[in-house]
Write a structure and sequence with these properties.
This protein is mostly helical. The chain has a domain of 50 residues. Helices cover 23% and strands 0% of the residues. The protein contains three helices and no strands. It is elongated and about 75 Å long. The mean pLDDT is 84.
Length: 81
């Protein structure tokens, strides 16, 4: 007897909500619990403080990135363009 494999298709539904992680646990809002199955795919998008371009420039001026072989343009090179 030959066994047939049946491909299961999964329908994914995206749900977005804000949450705070407490001891590694994310609490799912009550309104989404009914539609959950025992297996879910999780994508985390951690929120980080925004760094303005002025902050970035200040940080780079205070701690310049050193690159091997880098030579800044001289005055003549800069004005030749």
């Amino acid at each position: 007897m030959r066994m047939q494999r049946r491909k299961l298709r999964h329908i994914m539904e995206a749900v977005e909500f804000q949450a705070t992680v407490k001891n590694g646990i994310i609490e799912i809002p009550q309104e989404y619990l009914e539609s959950l199955t025992s297996h879910v795919r999780v994508i985390l998008l951690p929120e980080r403080p925004y760094e303005s371009s002025a902050d970035l420039i200040d940080r780079l001026l205070a701690h310049p990135v050193r690159l091997k072989g880098f030579r800044p343009l001289g005055r003549e090179d800069a004005h030749a363009r």
